[in-house]
Amino acid sequence: MPIVTKEHLEARRRQIIEAAVECFIERGFKKTSMRDIFRTAKLSSGAVYNYFSSKDKIVEAIAQMSQKQNLEIINSAAKDENPLMGVAKVYFSIVKDPDCIRSLGMTLELFVESKKNAQIEKSLRKNISASIDKLTEFVKSEQDKRNINYELDAETVAQTLLMLFLGLQTFLFINMKVDIDNFSSVFAAILNGKFTLKSNEEIYKEEK
């Protein structure tokens, strides 16, 4: 009996996930059946069910894969002089890829579905929370260096940054005209304290 390697199992699992993503993008989550996923993956029902018992379990795997990719993006910027701007630069380059924006339709639909499906909500929350936790670490590090106002709540700053990213994706998804390079410049101005003509010290004194 042939030995099935770990690499083979992982490749087959990824094949199923990618087929499901394609189906969700093309047909929508609710209209996609497991049979559609079998057909797109070019696998038998038994082969797919060996890995996933339902669409919900596939969504959980998609969220895990997305979480891993997001953390890789964030970690790749760890050695940058300004880690948060490093994350933003990578992110802004990714959203220029049409496939990234195309897949957002699936994400938005899953957000809606999560209000009726506790398992999907749990998967999405776990994915987003992992990104926020990692960004929060970077924010705290920059606060220690006095590059970000240390009086601000670090987690809320991280949430705000993630909301800006998600908002940009949503604008691009509905074909709103957005100059990503200009968006990046404005983001950098906010992050580097150059959004207002007043210095941070002047603002701080006025608030006192």
Task: Describe this entry's structure for a reader.
- This protein has ten helices and no strands.
- The chain is an all-alpha fold and 208 residues long.
- It has two domains: 1-53, Orthogonal Bundle (Arc Repressor Mutant, subunit A), CATH 1.10.10; 54-207, Orthogonal Bundle (Tetracycline Repressor, domain 2).
Break the fold down into its secondary structure elements and pairings.
Blueprint: H1 6-27, H2 34-41, H3 45-49, H4 55-76, H5 83-94, H6 98-114, H7 118-144, H8 154-173, H9 180-191, H10 200-207
Helix pairs in contact: 1-2, 1-4, 4-5, 4-7, 5-9, 6-7, 6-8, 7-8
What's the SSE pattern?
HHHHHHHHHH
CATH topology of the largest domain: Tetracycline Repressor, domain 2
- What general outline do the C-alpha atoms trace? elongated
Number of helices, where a helix is a run of at least 4 consecutive DSSP H or I residues: 10
- Summed over residues and divided by their number, the pLDDT gives a mean of 86
* % residues in beta strands: under 5%
Largest sheet: none
Q: What is the CATH class of the largest domain?
A: Mainly Alpha
Q: Can you give me a brief rundown of this structure?
A:
With 208 residues, this protein is mostly helical.
Highlighted features:
2 domains; Tetracycline Repressor, domain 2; 208 residues; Arc Repressor Mutant, subunit A
